[in-house]
Design goal:
By secondary structure, this protein is of the alpha/beta class. It folds into 2 domains: 1-30 and 189-234; 44-186 and 247-427, Alkaline Phosphatase, subunit A, CATH 3.40.720. It has helices at 11-18, 27-30, 69-72, 92-95, 117-121, 133-141, 193-216, 224-234, 236-242, 249-254, 275-286, 308-332, 399-410, and strands spanning 45-51, 77-79, 86-88, 101-108, 150-152, 259-261, 269-271, 290-295, 339-344, 348-349, 362-363, 367-373, 380-382, 397-398, 417-419, 425-427. Strands 1, 4, 5, 8, 9, 12, 13 and 14 form an 8-stranded mixed β-sheet that branches. The protein has a two-stranded antiparallel ribbon with strand order 2-3. A two-stranded antiparallel sheet has the order 6-7. Helix 8 crosses helix 9 (236-242).
Amino acid sequence: MLTLSSGPPSRRQFLRAGGLGVAGVTLPALLWNEARADTAARPKSVIYVVLSGGPSQIDTWDPKPDAPDEYRGPFGTIPTRLTGVRLCEHFPMQAQLLDRATVLNGVRSVENDHYLSEVYTGLPRSAGNRPAFGSVASKLLGARASLPAYVSLHRVEGFDRFDYERPYYAGSQHAPFRPFGDALDDLRPVHSPAALDDRRALLAGLDRMRRELDATGQAAALDRFQARALELVTSPRARDAFDLSKEPKRNVERYGRGKYTHQTVKSIVYDWDVKPFILARRLVEAGVRVVTVQVESWDHHSGPESDIFLSYRHCLPALDRSVWALVTDLEERGLLDDVLVVVLGEFGRTPKIAQPGPGREHWADAGSAILFGGGLKVGQVVGRTDARAERSVSGTMTFQNVVGTIYHVLGIDPNTTLPDFGGRPTYLLDHGRPIAELV
């Protein structure tokens, strides 16, 4: 139980009541820019689905049915709603959505390892510590209603050096809110007299603080955004957005079920988790500007226990259905033009199949991605690779261009600068022109 002394609540007590202190993001800071939000018109949002580990381009969105067997793999291809465009046979549902999508082929990454700085900032580690694009959006655009601007559905424990969604010099108040563990405990409705007393005592303490400050003429010392932070603690809007029990069972079921095997140990099988896809839709519907999702286990190397194609027979249909359901759900709610859905990995895989396994290794020269909605020009394939999906033959397209396109959708000029830790103005991207065919 949260206890309060006879005086005003301490900062520690305030954070504990908000349930955000453990998450590393203070609740008042999350709401800092909310006053600037434009509630008259619905702003754009982004759902960013990262297939962590790197999916194979040639087995998904850039198949090469005429390539030699040692490149092509065992999967067939299927027609789509775009004339002459084919996808992997395990993507029949996305094939029916391709007139509302853009496939990017030949996306080149600088890194060739599992450092996701490019994925979340557009820039490799050699560019220094840059803020994640969600943190930039939080800083420059602010939040709407009583929800944070940037939510990550990727769980990290403590200070994780592999956490690439950091705000750096954008400011710690613009770190992503992660709805795990204690972070959401106090967003739940109170069910006991003790918990209700906690809330009442906190409010009473704040009232005492206000009266005391008013009496001394120092009311401005109480940050108005701290007072508003209580809205997230008590707001039904905030609670409902994170509460999957509010989602109709029929809608949950259409996001799919299924299993998928471990990326390197084919005997290990997991349940496919659709909850992040559904939660992402609920959050953007409620007004969150950026929601990121990480779908693990796409790192299919060669090895005696590996079989990339066995794994793909499980996980590609599951991914296909979840992506289809997410896009269809947004479309049925009239949100698809206002929400950009991006699905990608940090790089592709070697077009030539590696043995033993079979497996595919890291390949930075030609990854693929698929984008839906967001008001972009859809119904097309942008970028073309050679006959074996090894390299782009249509020019260079990088993660800077992908993130630059996201900034364009959100209404952020990629040429904007932010002062770094030394106070030097630093561009959001070094070469971040949006992808011309999309805008």
